[in-house]
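Checklist before submission:
- one chain only
- standard amino acids only
- sequence pasted in full

Submission:
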Amino acid sequence: MVVSKLKPLTAYEEAIEGLVTHGWISGIEDYGCFICFYNNVKGLVHRTELGLDPGVKPESVFQTGQVVKCRILRADPSARRISLSFILSPSRVLELHGDGGKTVSVGDEVSGVVTHVSNSLITLDIPLQFGVARAFMKVELLSDFNGHSEQLRSLLIPGHKFDHLRVLERDDQKLIVTSKFSFLSCDFIPSDISQLNSHKVVPGYIASITEKGCFVRFLGGLTGLASVPQLVDGFVQDPFQHFTVGQSVRAQVLEVNLDFGRFNVSLKQSVCYSTDTNLIKGYFLEEEKIAELQASKADLAKMNSIDSIVVGGVIKGVVQDIKEYGIIVDIQNFKDFVGFVTHFQIDSELKVGDVVTARVLDVVKSDGIIDLTLRRNLVKLGHKSNCEGEKAGRKRRRKVLEIHQKALGVVELIKDEYLVCSLPDYGNAIAFASAHDYNIRVDPHEKYTLGQSIEVVIGALPEDSGVGRLLVLVASFSDPTGGLSVKRRKMLRKLNSEGIIHGQVVSVGPLEMKIKVGKNSVGKVHVTQVVDEFQDENPLARYSVGEMITAKILKKSKHFDDGVSSLCYELTLKPSLLGNEDQEESRNCSDTTLSTLSVGQIVIGYVKDVHDDWALLLISPTVIGRLFVLDSSTDPIQLARFQSRYQIGQPVRCRISKIDYGNGKVDLSLRNLDNSSKDEEASEININDIIGGRVSKILPGVGGLSVQIGAHVFGRVHVTDLHDVWKDNPTRDFKVGQFVRCRVLDVSRNEDGIINQVDLSLRQSLIESQLDAAAPSSSNKRPDSMIVEKLEDLHVDMEVEGFVKNIVSKGCFVTLSRKIDARIKISNLSGTYVADPEIMFPVGKVVRGRVISFDCATGFVELSLRRPLHNQQRDETGLITLKELHVGNLVTGVISHIASYGLFISIDNSKIVGLCHISEVSDNHIGNLESHYKIGERVRAKVLKVEEDRERISLGMKNKYIKDLRMEVESNEEEGLVSEQSLGTNISAETNDADEDRDLGDDSNLHPLSTPVFSVFSSPVEPLDVVLDTEENKLTDDTSIEGVNFATTNEVYESSNKRAKKRSKDLREAAIREAERKLVEGDNVPESIEDFEKLVHVSPNSSFIWIKYMAFLLSLGDADKARAVAERALQTINFREEGEKLNVWVALLNLENVYGDPPKEATMAVFHRALQYCDNKKLYLALLGIYERSDQHDMADELLKTMLRKFKMSCKMWLKRIHHFLRRGLLEAAHKTLDRALLSLPQRKHIKVISQAAIAEFKIGSAEHARNLFESILRNYPKRVDLWSVYLDQEIVLGDATVTRALFERVISLDLPPKKMKFLFKKYLDYEKAHGDEERMDYVKGKAMQYVESRLG
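Returned file contents:
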């Protein structure tokens, strides 16, 4: 890498397609190799680009750390992704198997047949002489117009043939093609950098956009950079506002560097303007193609009939309807098309039914619309040819149309992509001009007005254009400074003293109305300046074009159009302002700004735009509010129709919920419109409110739903609050994105009043009871049972229902409500044997049981699903119950289950299952019961023990119990024996009595406390993520367990003490033996509390196991037990194991930071306790890391202040605070902290803190300030070569070659010993090898020789 002569890759922005450079392999996978470059720039070489034969594994050929040469295929700097290839010289020609040597080259024009259409890609087959080639075309490459690209994609079907396609790129397997007319109509497009000439303008398209500019691509993947200053003629703040990916452009080549394979281009309109009418020609050709595709799905005769209508011709029709926006004309013999006349094209009054003679201005086949004009001066010339030499109305001959001739045009129609103009000097011939150019995309409705005069250049005559239209080019595109020579404008008539003017309405839109004032001045009335009070309809709808109105001036401004200056007035029609004679006061009254608004104020907004989740409302001409979808209604049906409910210009009465003065944002809401209180945002959600929501996440198991109830506010719906009538797996009735109506049950806020968590309910009974005050209180109850919200409402033997929450080997947990969980032992799950609890009681199943015991203090509740056998009597079927059982009875039954510790026997004529322990099966020892007995085998046994309180029965099968009684085989005899004596009990457990008591009874390890209230927001830091920010205690291994990272604690710390080394060795060997034992026994992953208890008993000093134990309890939702385990760990771990104890303390801090109540106080309480036992410095650093990873900047600031007071002589603490400010972008605060550090730290630490701060400034701060810091050190220590080296390294990384070389020149001019100068000259030479050329390398060598000669002389 050091001696490589190839250009190094140091940033993602430098990744140019086709660049060949060196890198090293940082990782090898089955799907490819990861390559690393300088500054941690990384890329991927896919398996297909490794150059390996099929079946060869990459790891058998390559190895990690190997230096390789690779070629850049594709790069996306914004996503930080680079695709690479080990194939350095791809062929320029695609050769197909069996094609007889015929080739397809980049730039060739081919035809293709569509085989597949997706949302973003078109797949085609390119037919050749003896085969086909697979080709791909992105949707944005279909057309020069974005609108056409989407239309074509929606109409294309497999089988459609493209007659003309241009090959953009190719490799050995596929082609990249385009159907852009700008590429098809151009004779020369470069495909290699050697074909480029400076100042040449060539067509291309935008491949990608970054903050540094736009990458323009031509043929063969040839890509140039248009930097930000070269994008437009004016100032560019954001390139994304001017260009889009895939946009067709014209680019001028500026400079070409053949050595590095780079070139720069310019997209400025002043040098890249169009010189022909190919843009508008391509538009109409694509319009014809879209119409043909539509006709292929509909009626072809419709398309053939419209061909008889000629643009500029005259047709007759009947006025069918008169609308506010124009007149609808019924054209005879063209029933599938409708004529349309704008008000601007009418010069006489008309009524429905009138027969009119109109001239055709435009024909839009795809929409079935024929644009007409009824103006006499245009219609009377429609019968005559546009090119005839007859006399016009003013007794002068009309000029003859010639190519490249300039003419004066009058705008008759304004379309989204083009203008329809009349040419008065040429008999009012109808011409078409593009409304914009390749490199400038403007709204023509804003730039042009009907009747406006513009200068055009004749581009193509109708017979030569290929589209049957006269095509012209707007002259201003080639002259951005303005092309028309206009007469000096006449002075406007004086306005009266009140600022009242009179004008004529020329256009009415949903948000603005334009008024003609005088001859050349325009007035604008914003929709918010029409009425004072709220109205149900758009206030501008009452006005029509041509109407005379009176308005008041609010503001004057100059308007430039094609270089011509005119006056523009901002007007108001509000009655309250029209009557106010004080013009200044009127302006102040109408000027609504952020400072004049307040939270809670009711305002009128007018819909400007509607996105997926937001509606933008105009409150005033300068203030725009945002209405979130969930703030618009509580009805799910209305929320789903959000976009269709609001139309552009629709008035909405809303309430201001939040004002962000810093960002200039106003949030609106339709809630509490009748509430006049002006509370802050938090008051928008209160207990018992009915609000709308949207399901954002379906939580696993019985976690319920996460519901979005605001733009940035989420709530949780517990599984018991989903429905009134409970059913299994209730979340399956919901899907992500579904709108719901909720009732707020509880709201928790922090000290600042910010919402932490919101508990919601979707139960219809609760919602209706809140909406209807007269609803009975019983609506809060479920129809079949009451939801138990408090432990005080429970009593023993009370029947309750719940959802199965979790299954473990010893039982299951059931959630009864939001705050109460219960435990069910496996022996209490059923009256019969349960072979697999997970199958019989899956998570989410509704179960009904009775309360056995509960404890209000601890929140412990235990249930049983078994019916009490001791209370049962023999029913009508004659089944024996437990009450009839006596010790000594002989019973018969069938073996239902065989365990390692005994046999489970289902006693005949009952529902009782008894256990015969292995010690009671036979007089002789039996090692394996399965080899002697089978399930279903009939046996006889004696009742040994009956436990009515525990509903259990113990049996014995030894011969001494049976004595002389012999086993009868016939079933009728067996039934006779047991008809009166068959007794038993239900033992459905997996362990014997002693095991059961030990596992489930004594230590109560399965007792759940009441479920803690979890926030619906996910924490960015895992609860038990133990990260110590110290080099001394850095852990050697990380283990991921259920999404929580734990630091291993088996690391052996080096110590000179032999005893400490021996102890560390013993601990390590013990850990290895433990791991080997787990592998042998197959219990690597503990699954229950008992498993963890065994582990901590074996390794009591291992913080890894204790922390893992805590994480397991958190996965069960029991944060309190996790805290208890942490306390046990701190008491159990030996006091000499300081590192292990510190890990537990840090885990406990992480736990409290997420689950503490409240987190801030709980975390600090644990922290102050830990300070008494741990290294204070390490503990402070650990807590700082927790706060920074969870983005708690305020807490981190307070902690850093404390750390600096406590450890003010520690250089590391000051650097921590400096890094903290730099990461947050607070450069000034970081600089002040450095000044404070220099005052506090001793002189010997100044160099370290200044140099480290400078390095941090280079990376995440200000490079200029970093240079100042290095210069301040080197002024005092000019011979510190180590400082010069670090300084140089940072400048090299920054990439400014001029600054770097200037710094090298300063360094080599120092008077230092030869050994140090040798190091500096070598560093300089290495830099030039990587970034310079042979001339620069010779220059450095010459400087070195001069130094040697000066020393020798």
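Reviewer check: The chain has 33 helices and 54 strands.
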